[in-house]
Amino acid sequence: MPPAPKSAPKSAAGSLASFCAWAAEPGVRVYLRPVGLMPIAAWAKGAAVPLAGGRFAFATAELIVRQGGGLEGGRVERAFAPLSEILAWGWERAREVAEALDRQLGALTRARSPFGAVELGRPAIMGIVNVTPDSFSDGGDFLDHAAAIAHGGALLDAGADILDIGGESTRPGSSPVSPEEEERRVLPVIRHFAGRGATVSVDTRHARVMAAAIGAGARIVNDVAGLGDPLALPVVARSGTPVVLMHMLGEPGTMQANPQYADAALDVFDWLEERVARCAAAGVPPEHIAVDPGIGFGKTVEHNLSILRHTALYHALGCAVLIGLSRKAFIGRLSRGEPPRERLAGSLAAGLETLNQGAQILRVHDVAETAQARALWEGLHPLQSRL
After folding, report:
1. Which phi and psi (to 5°) does residue 192 adopt?
2. How far apart are CA 64 and CA 66, in angstroms?
3. What does the DSSP 8-state code read for residue 175?
């Protein structure tokens, strides 16, 4: 992997010659979104740089420059250009701009370590086990421990790399569940699968449940609130447990009540960047973090689509990227209003699109179908492809 440049390239000639003269002003942020992804063999031939150490390489990016924020929007400009032009443009604007671009390029190209003992050389499948009475898709199906264990076993047999076990529904409009009730629901299931040697993730936003689940054998914490519980970050940091940081606007009960962003993709990036920085300050390294932009959690259909189009942007956070969109309502809204169990085709289509942008983990209900789709995708995008 090439190191991020440390000295100024020669010139930002071409499309960026006069782009965003105001980029050196205070309060300006820059973002790099890889585009035009190529087979990884392009890196070996010196034509591109690798994307997160995976199957793709890139030599071109979308440069996004933003000043201001909040719901008033501020000022945003976008341009597509070769990386060499973008880096030269940064140095011609200001050292701070150039160094920000260098940091992002370094994060974009750095290979990803295993996450929760799961290798990320191929996209990982996280299978959902909802031990709840009211989840949006399968609420009540697996509330009984025996049913949850049977379902989890079937998901492992179907190809799940991770089992995500949760005891509180966070669907739009849901009500909170006490930590005591969450523990009663999930701990026996976690102990069973941890005893089998499975990689188990606990889906919770409560520090107490995180600690109990880790003690029961969970190897990953998946928090829809991005460690919003004040005690959650200390639990994760002390235990050394990998964590999924997800973005959610507001609370589950009210998050779909007129959600608003200045720019959904960039606002979510900024929020996740702040959470990753908090984790780093507490001693949680990037290889122990996966970021999840939170599709459907305080987002309209258009917000979700904007975020999914920008999946590659989130690699600049330097962490694994997890996407959870399985059976979500926006799929039906874009189609014919199908209920959750009839949204498999849309779930696969959107999930594969994020794999085409380098996403490392898909969180899904339909593991067997996703595993089959992944197998075809891997055949089309081999790790050692030739130009």
Report:
1. -60, -50
2. 7
3. P
| Residue pair 38/56 in contact by the 8 Å Cβ criterion | yes
Tell me the C-alpha distance between 295 and 301, whole Å: 9
DSSP state of 326: T
Q: How far apart are CA 314 and CA 357, in angstroms?
A: 10
Instruction: Note the pLDDT of residue 1.
Output: 40
For the chain, domain boundaries: 14-109, 124-380
Cβ count near 294 (within 10 Å): 26
For the annotated catalytic residues, the residue numbers are 328, 363
Quick check: 364 and 347 in contact, CB under 8 A?
yes
Using left for φ > 0, alpha for ψ between -120 and 50, and beta otherwise, residue 198 falls in: beta
- What pLDDT is attached to residue 291? 98
Cα 309 to Cα 34, 109, 277, 350, distances in angstroms? 11, 19, 24, 10
Cα 58–chain centre separation: 20
Strand partners, 31: 64
Alpha helices in the chain (DSSP H): 41-44, 83-93, 95-109, 145-158, 179-195, 207-216, 232-239, 264-281, 301-309, 329-334, 344-355, 367-380
State the pTM of this model: 0.93
Q: Is 206 exposed, middle or buried (0-12, 13-18, 19+ CB in 10 A)?
A: buried
How far is it, in rounded angstroms, from Cα 171 to Cα 189?
21
Whole-number Cα distances in Å, 149 to 75, 170, 299, 370, 379 = 51, 21, 32, 20, 32
Mean pLDDT of 301-313: 98
Report the topology of domain 124-380. TIM Barrel (3.20.20)
Q: Which two tokens stand for residue 166?
A: 């949760």
Enumerate the β-bridge partners of residue 118: 115
Are 31 and 351 spatial neighbours (Cβ–Cβ below 8 Å)? Answer: no
pLDDT tens-digit series, residues 249-265: 988 878 888 999 999 99
Degrees, nearest 5: CA angle 260-261-264: 125
pLDDT averaged over every residue in the chain:
91
Q: What is the bridge-based pairing of β-strands 124-130 and 361-364? A: parallel
pLDDT by residue (tens digit) across 278-291?
Answer: 999 999 999 999 99
Q: Read off the tokens for 278.
A: 């908090």
